[in-house]
Amino acid sequence: MYYSISRPLNLLRPTSLVSHPTYCPVTRSNVQPRLQPRRYSSSVAQAHTTQLRRSYLYVPASEERMLQKSLVTPSDVIIYDLEDSIAPSEEGKIVARERLAEFLTKTPADELPHPSRIAVRVNSTHTSFFERDIVSILTIPSVRTLVLPKVHSVEDLEMVTDAMEAFGRSQGTIHLVASIESAQALHNIGGIAAWKSVYGPEKGGELRALLFAAEDYCADTSVIRTASRQELLYPRSHLSVAARAFGLEAIDMVCVNYKDLDYLRDECTDGRRLGFSGKQAIHPSQVDIIQSTFVPTEQEILRAAKIVHQMAQAHAAQTGAIGLDLSDEKGGKEMIDAPMLKQAEKTIRMARAAGLPIPTLP
Predict the structure, then answer these.
(1) Binding site for Mg(2+): residue ranges?
(2) pTM of the complete model beyond 0.90
(3) Which segments are annotated as binding site for substrate?
């Protein structure tokens, strides 16, 4: 159950934050309509793809041992968690918040993961913990990404951006990851994906990705999750398409059976086929398989290299399409034109970013 989004925003009440020196009320008198179309940019999408973010490993912020282990994990992104992996008590949240702040500020910078790999999942805007999470986390320079749970509508993002504008900092843009966890969120996903902060990215944050929280979604919709994943095909496909429509990354669900690595690999392959750019992990043992699956295969790279090479020759000869030899026993050929070239170029970029060998063709 979650609260109505129409409730007053606690962080705008001066009495709750009188000790915070930078607090100032947010006024609405001159604010323009908030929902503005996001202009898709191929260069932005390319930049996001080139810096691979395949695995998103959750680390409970209350566990000192796990915090220390996060210093050596190869995960592309590490999500330090203040939400579901933390006891839902006031004391539990305070301990996690303070422990994480101490860890990220007192650990030598050269030992911490690069800021581009650090994310923090705060508590939902529908809880009493949210505003204190924001006040604490925004004081930590190494945090560049916030994972926002239970984003059911644009209004939830508005509450976040109001908080960021009120307690923000000047060290650069905070990237936001919106977690889609309910039927309402899936219904509103177009508006969520199109959202941009009225305060601009530097003060109000910038939406970078949509994340699918399968277990929360099943709990909300009464969908029964099975090993086939068939019942989740629609929400996963819908999220992937909505994210790509607005130049965002799409992050697939957690594989809860973290002991079965063969099933994990199958689920990763399935997610990649659906267009996801990465996947959440709940155990370090999942990271390597996720990262080795969410990259092009050797066969895909070879095919892409052939397409790029032969299309360059075709364009030089003023030809717009080619027939690519399928190397099968039937002598089949595949028609290749501009859309396939675009896919091939993306494959080469991803392979290069992952450090995979790219064949040189004569």
Answers:
(1) 181, 216
(2) no
(3) 121, 181
